[in-house]
Amino acid sequence: GAVVSQHPSRVICKSGTSVKIECRSLDFQATTMFWYRQFPKQSLMLMATSNEGSKATYEQGVEKDKFLINHASLTLSTLTVTSAHPEDSSFYICSASSWVGEKLFFGSGTQLSVL
Amino acid sequence: SQQGEEDPQALSIQEGENATMNCSYKTSINNLQWYRQNSGRGLVHLILIRSNEREKHSGRLRVTLDTSKKSSSLLITASRAADTASYFCATDAGTLTGGGNKLTFGTGTQLKVEL
Questions:
Q1: How far apart are CA B21 and CA B56, in angstroms?
Q2: Residue-level pLDDT at A100
Q3: Peptide bond preceding A8: is omega within 30 degrees of 0, i.e. cis?
Q4: Inter-chain Cβ pairs, chain A and chain B, closer than 8 A
Q5: Cβ of B108 and A98 within 8 Å?
Q6: Closest Cα to residue A105, out of B36, B34, B33, B44?
Q7: Torsion angle, CA of A7/A10/A15/A18, rounded to 10 degrees?
Q8: Closest-CA residue of chain A to B108
Q9: Of B40, B90, B100, which has the smallest distance from its Cβ to A32's Cβ?
Q10: Mean pLDDT in consecutive groups of 10 residues from the start of chain B, 115 residues
Q11: For residues A89 and A112, is the Cβ–Cβ distance under 8 A?
Q12: Record: contact B30-A99, CB cut-off 8 A
C-alpha cells in the first residue's frame, strides 16, 4: 500500500524555537495533505488542509502564522511550529490522499515536547 | 462540533471474544471509514463503507452503516491480543469525488484484548 513518511518522529525543543516537521508521500502523488493534532487519549483534530502549489486552508481557531504549512511539491508538505511554547506540545500527524481513492494514508506522527 | 461520537470509550475483552464499537455522526456523508491507531503511531485504514452500502466485511472485520440513524458499528470477531489499539471512525462529507475530502474523526474507542 501507499507509504507516507513523517520526520522527525520525536523532537524536544526549548520554548521560543521553531520546529519543522516533514511529511512525504513515497510512492504516490499526494494532491492533498492534511495536518492533525492529537492530545493523549483523544481524537485527531484537523489543523489544516494543504494542496500542492496553493495556500493551506486552516481550520477555525488554528493560527496560520504560528503553524506554517508549505506544500511545495506533490510528494512533500511541511509544518513549521514557530516560536513553540509548552502548550504546543502534542502529537502531530500528517496524512495524504490522492485521486486514486478516498482513504487517507497516515504518517507515523511526530511527538513534540516543548520545554 | 461536527466530530462524531464513539462508544464505548474503552473496551476490555478476552482473547477470542468479539468486540463491537459504535460510531454516531451528525451530517450527511459520502462514506464512513474506520481506522486503527497503535499507541504513539499513525493511523492505519481498515475499511471504508459508502453511504449506499449497509454492510461490509473484510477478514475478521464487519462494518454496518445506518444512514437513517447516522450510525455505524465495527465488529471484530475472534479478537487477538494484537488487536489492542484505538479505533476511530471517520466521516467523509465532502463534495469531491475520488479523494481529497477532509475526514472528521470520531472520539475513538480504546480496545484492550487480554490473553
A1: 15
A2: 57
A3: yes
A4: 71
A5: no
A6: B44
A7: 0
A8: A43
A9: B100
A10: 78 97 92 93 92 96 97 97 96 65 88 96
A11: yes
A12: no
